[in-house]
Design brief:
With 131 residues, the chain is of the alpha+beta class. The chain has one domain (2-23, 35-124): Alpha-Beta Plaits. The chain has helices spanning 2-18, 26-30, 50-55, 57-72, 97-105, 108-111; strands spanning 36-45, 76-81, 88-93, 115-124. Strands 2-3-1-4 form a four-stranded antiparallel β-sheet, sandwiched between helices. A hairpin with a 6-residue loop joins strand 2 (76-81) and strand 3. The chain is elongated.
Length: 131
């Protein structure tokens, strides 16, 4: 229950604080584009202690390189760890849930079992361009 509340709060935060409304011209207002799909992924570490975390260290470097590649390819909008270290958050902008799941499941750290994924679809009703 707490995870669902947290996920809901994160979605609201992303939509309200991080993404303002798009501005459309008069012609665009007459024919609005369909809302884009985004996928909020909570990336939960599976390790229980420092020894287990150390075992995944090589995969974490590969994970960083993989995430950077997805960002550069335009698939990833934002990614990073929560400051309290509980888990990471990724927001993907892709065409389908299948594509989002494929990207996340091909992460070397996910394949190695270092992370478990929790994915939520978001319809981007209000999205501002990146600054």
């Amino acid at each position: 229950m707490q995870k669902r509340r947290l996920a809901g709060a994160l979605v609201a935060l992303l939509l309200v604080a991080g993404m303002g409304p798009r501005i459309f011209s008069a012609t665009q207002a007459q024919e609005p584009k369909p809302a884009k799909l985004y996928f909020l992924t909570l990336v939960h570490p599976t390790w229980k202690n420092a020894e287990e975390q150390a075992r995944f260290a090589p995969m974490l470097k590969e994970h960083g390189e993989y995430v950077k590649k997805q960002f550069e390819a335009g698939k990833l909008v934002v990614a990073g760890p929560r400051l309290d270290g509980v888990y990471g958050i990724d927001v993907l902008e892709v065409d389908s849930a299948q594509e989002a799941r494929q990207i996340m499941e091909n992460d070397p750290a996910v394949k190695a079992g270092a992370f478990q994924l929790e994915m939520h679809a978001i319809r981007g009703a209000f999205v501002r361009p990146l600054r």
